[in-house]
Design goal:
Largest sheet: 4 strands, mixed
Number of helices: 1
Strand order of the largest sheet: 1-6-5-4
Helix content: under 10%
Number of strands: 8
Distance between the termini: 70 Å
Strand content: 25-35%
Number of domains: 1
Length: 154
């Protein structure tokens, strides 16, 4: 029997409540997507999220964050520099990257900050008033409706 691991679905989508959309995107996704740079997605409140991406070695000028067609795109391009010395080991990757996250409806990027080698992007779910659930008052029936007479039944 075939089993599916749904863990990858939660890594690149934010705010989706419809499993059909998640499954469709996961099954059509390219399996060769790079894991660079590493990132975290955390839920900071009921309707708030934060994406934290490790961008050690990149300055704010070399980073680009944009929202386009329900996709959050984070990209970086390191300016080529002549090596200052010879490395015995170079483990800090500063290669160019582009990371895409699919945003659900009503998810808005509220801000981004860069500190200590981490890029933090804050997101907020803003549901329009027309889509929020509302309570309908139930009126108590105290008398017969107007125009209808109550008759006694023998």
């Amino acid at each position: 029997m075939r089993t599916f691991d749904f863990a990858p679905l939660h890594r690149a989508t934010i705010g989706f409540d419809q499993i059909a959309d998640l499954m469709d995107r996961a099954l059509s996704a390219d399996g060769s997507q790079s894991s660079y740079p590493p990132y975290n997605i955390e839920k900071t409140a009921d309707d708030a999220y934060r994406i934290s991406i490790a961008v050690a070695g990149f300055s704010e000028e070399e980073l680009r964050v944009e929202v386009k067609e329900n996709a959050l795109i984070i990209a970086a391009n390191k300016a080529e520099q002549a090596p200052a010395g010879s490395y015995l080991h170079r483990g800090i990757a500063t290669r160019a990257f582009e990371r895409r996250f699919t945003l659900a409806d009503h998810i808005r990027v509220t801000g981004a900050s860069h500190a200590d080698g981490m890029l933090h992007i804050d997101l907020q779910r803003e549901i329009p008033e027309g889509l929020k659930p509302r309570r309908i008052a139930i009126n108590a029936k105290t008398s017969a409706p107007a125009g209808i007479e109550a008759k006694a039944v023998n």
